[in-house]
Amino acid sequence: MAKEQAKAEVKKDWMGAVEAYSTAMERIRQNAQPLFAFAAIYAVVVLISVAAQGGNKGGDYNSLESLVTFFFLVSIPLYGLSIADQRSMSVNEFLRPRPKLFIALLGLIILNFFIAAGSLLLLIFPIIWTLAWFYMATFILVDKKVGPIDALKHSKILAKGHMGKVWGIVGFGVVLNIGVSILSSFLSGYIKVLFDAIAVTTLLLWIDSASALLYRYMQRHAVTEVATPEER
């Protein structure tokens, strides 16, 4: 009886993916300075690259996209958490380098790659499970300051009973990406480059912010709390 009541409470409390994205965007508008800085840096780097190639969108353009995003590897999920917590993040805080977290997050990405590849090749677990299990590992790592392996373990614990919610967030993010890609296909030249810069940076922060809202929700309904290094 108690378990059924808890399940009903969980279902009632979660706002749903569409509402999560709507809430995230409202809060992003209230703290948009980091987004503007991110988009400006992204646009300047890409525009310089395109100009150097004679105005052609190609060549090293995609590499630079990845490089700029790579630089903000830690800042993006931290911004998402600030949105979920309704805490204002300054541009200086967003741009601040965090080498230890960066290295740990890089290790997590590598581990995630091998887990996903192993799931596909060896069929140990269907990829749809593993991606949902470990989706929140990034937030756990930057939020709790744990290592990559602990982040993966606790992400799987958090995902228990919430797999559908995770895929709701992921699925809506995919729809947004498809919509932006369709709009981008109608543009050309520098207008396309500028549009892509704004769209890519907005989507990255928007999707992470909506995901962070789910992460905080999952924490409130977690079976086991994630222990920080100081609590061990």
**Distance between termini?**
34 Å
User: What count of helical segments does DSSP give?
Assistant: 12
Order of helical and strand elements: HHHHHHHHHHHH
Number of strands: 0
Helix proportion range = over 70%
Largest sheet: none
Query: Would you tell me the overall average pLDDT?
Result: 85
Radius of gyration: 19 Å
State the oligomer: single chain
- Sum up the overall morphology in one term: globular
Contiguous uncertain segments of 5+ residues: 1-11
Strand content: under 5%
Counting helices, strands and paired strands, the structural category is: mainly alpha
Brief summary of the model shown:
Helices cover 77% and strands 0% of the residues. The protein is an all-alpha fold and 232 residues long.
Blueprint (SSEs and pairs):
Blueprint: H1 2-13, H2 17-30, H3 33-52, H4 61-71, H5 75-84, H6 91-95, H7 99-122, H8 127-133, H9 137-144, H10 148-159, H11 163-185, H12 189-220
Helix pairs in contact: 2-11, 2-12, 3-4, 3-12, 5-12, 7-9, 7-10, 9-10, 11-12
